[in-house]
Amino acid sequence: MSRPRPGGPSTLEAPAIVGRRHEMAAIRRALSSTRLLTLTGTGGVGKSRLARWTAEALRGTFPDGVETVDLGCLEDGGLLESAVAAALGLREAGPSTLDTLADYLAGHRTLLVLDNCEHLLDPCARLVHGLLRGAPRLRILVTSRQALTVTGERVLWVPPLPVPPREGPARDVARHDAVRLFEQRAARARPGFAVDAANAPAVARLSRRLEGIPLAIELAAARLRTVPLDQLVSELDRHVEVLEESTLPGPPRRRSLRGTLDWSYELCSPAEQRLWSRLSMFAGGAELEAVEAVCGGGEIGREDVVDLLAGLVDKSVLVPETREAVPRYGMMESVRAYGLERLTRDDAEALRPRYLDHHRRLVEANRLDRLAPDQRERYRRLQADLANVRVAIELSLGLLGQPRAGLEMAARLWGYWLLAGSLTEGRHWLGRALSLSPEPSLSRVEGLWVSALLALHQGDLAAAEPPLGECASLARRLGDDAGLACAVQTAGLAAFAAGDAARGLALLEEAHARHEACGERDALALNLFYTAAYGAAAHPERVAEQGERFLALAEAHHAEVSRAYALFAVGLAAWNRGDWRRAEALMRESAAFRGAIGDRWGLAQCLEVLAWIAGARGDHGRAARGLGAVEPLWRAMGASPDRLWPHVQGHERCVAAAREALGERGYAAAFRAGAGLGLERALASAMEEAAA
């Protein structure tokens, strides 16, 4: 089953590793006796590639899996825990994301790889400390230019690749890993290239000049597309001689990488140089459309972008990939950092507004709270560009001084925050934006009710009530009928959370009338869902029609994600009316879709109800197994069905009936058996047993 993954360079496939047998063996040995291992070394030395390849080789050693999180494109340490939770496919339904992570990993023998941590040392140290304390079977592998200095940390320095001595036959030269890497990458640039007696001295000299740093070697090898080897070595010799006479700070190997980046930059055309620096603004890579919209202008015509991108790919400055048949261009972190240094003040000032405008349009065009036939594609697009959207929001709140733009983006991403389970991140951005946008506005109304909604989905009723009160008051003051309808609707959910079902349903029905008066089709559809799902337990007959209407709307607009939620709402109403056969069919269909898109929150709710249905039919053993199977999902999200209004009654009745029928020991045994299934098998089991 797929699940959400952060966008950007973290998803780029790591190229095949060359050499590193000793380092990989050292990592294996270290992880057998220590719970935290940090790989350090100079930039470009290959720490990330080594960590990823070793982790993959160790996959069989960790029965609960290997999880890799690239933090290179995360620039706000306050979002670290949320980013890791999202990478693990967890929903932050509880108040503490760290507790959710630790609880999820507590019973797992897992290897967690945290890649590119050097710019987030303190937040990473706090996270790692909390995870190691709360998850005793967890092992963590970190890559960073500096150690985290956490108690129990073991540090392994990653050296450059071995280079050949000044003299030696071609056979000996070719055995060195630095030469092997150059030969492999050079063959991509110039098919048929191989180290032989004629070129071995030149390759050996080049490898020594680059001091065995893999990134520097790859950048140099890419140059063979346009120049012969002898010229390449001569160019590099001249550049290094200048570099050695300079006062560039840092140890020799750091200067060597910086010098190679300088050299690669100088070999680019002026337009390629300009595009390199402009593209470095994108933390998560970019598609062609985004590059044209943001980076075009001045010396770079939109019609020139494709050719310039191809040139940077040829020089190994950009790493291409394809997602959903759409080309995307990313950078290694060292290359991106260099590009940012080269970004001129004038270019930066011109690009920032374009960058913000592009991503505002992207968020608006991919809203998930709209009934549209491409909801799944919208979700994936937002996943892919999340790192870039974060940069845009940060720009709006900081350098550009446009907090209202950031507020609108954070609020209109509410459907994404819910579906991805990134509730804490959504609240983080909304909290900052609301504090910077205190003036009365329609944007503030929207931000307030979305902030309250996210708090309610995390069970934080106390945090939801103040913004709800301000939202309703401000909406009335501004004559914002649509905003007031949303405020009333969210207040209805708050009433349900407080245990007042009658008031909650009344407020949802009031909001329904207000949405209709405003002609807000999409908001009305959401209201139908909440009314059907929350009102099903207390008034199944009264709300059944709303669920059917929501399903009909979703199907009429071919809105797949909305349809999955509608199936759940209608199925819940069917369950409460005693129509178990229909409820089962609807829950199975909804669960299959939610599993396919990685919606663990929705999947947990569907599997929960399927367990109830088994119990209602008298199969209490299957019911107990089903409850056990879904329990790890609830715990991983910091949630529980006995605290969620749509589930409280059904859950309690199912547990009580199963315990009475099986006895405490029988119930516990069946529950444990279900809990041991794992997510994939739990879903497959629910589908098979329900079908039977």
What is the compact description of this entry?
By secondary structure, the protein is mainly alpha-helical.
What does this structure look like?
This protein is mainly alpha-helical and 692 residues long. The protein is built from 33 helices and 8 strands. Strands 2-3-4-1-5 form a 5-stranded parallel beta sheet, with helices on both faces. Strand 7 (319-323) and strand 8 (326-330) form a beta hairpin. The radius of gyration is 28 Å and the shape is globular. The two termini are 22 Å apart. Residues 1-13 and 245-251 have low confidence and may be disordered.
The count of helical stretches stands at: 33
The proportion of strand residues reads 5-15%
Largest sheet: 5 strands, parallel
Secondary structure tally: strands: 8
Shape: globular
Indicate the mean pLDDT. Answer: 89
The Rg value, from CA coordinates, equals 28 Å
End-to-end distance: 22 Å
Q: Which runs of at least 5 residues are low in confidence (pLDDT < 50)?
A: 1-13, 245-251
Query: Helicity range of the residues?
Result: 55-70%
Strand order across the biggest sheet?
2-3-4-1-5
By helix and strand content, what is the structural category? mainly alpha
Protein traits:
single chain, 692 residues, mainly alpha, five-stranded parallel beta sheet, three-stranded antiparallel beta sheet, 33 helices, 8 strands
